[in-house]
Amino acid sequence: MANHRTARMGAKPSLATLVALAALALGLPGGNALADKQSASPGVVDIALAIERGIFTVQEGVVSWYGAQFQDRKTASGERFDSGAFTMAHPRLPFGTMVRVTNLRNGRSVVVRVNDRGPFVGKRIADLSQAAASEIGMMRKGVARARIEVLDGEAVSATTP
Known about the structure:
The protein is built from 6 helices and 6 strands; from the N terminus they run ααααβββββαβα. By secondary structure, the protein is of the alpha/beta class. Strands 1-5-2-4-3-6 form a 6-stranded mixed β-barrel. The longest helix is centred in the N-terminal third of the chain and has 12 residues. The N terminus and C terminus are likely disordered.
């Protein structure tokens, strides 16, 4: 047995072994399951591929809101924050993306435009403006479990007056 171990230690890894190790290191599907569980939100490539395939639900998770304390401050997109506008901060969606945010507790939804980056607290997936948060009934608790769906141009025009 000792000879077998010695021979294996000196052997070069197969291509399959290298691919498996790379998948494990990168946390790809079939690789590190723990990395998948820790990633609360999809990356830019995942979002772009989902949109391209016509899948508009981007993610579900906890959203929060921000308001008066940020009024008139510049957002990451360069525009001034307006707590009365229907806008949202998201860590990765492109600025200008229109999304429907649905409060999963009460079913109420609102269409907002991404104009900022965030949130920067815990595993939250988005920050809504005060007006948007009020529209979906989450002001009292401050947070809500929600679904974020990217809208195409037709859906946006159908939901706005």
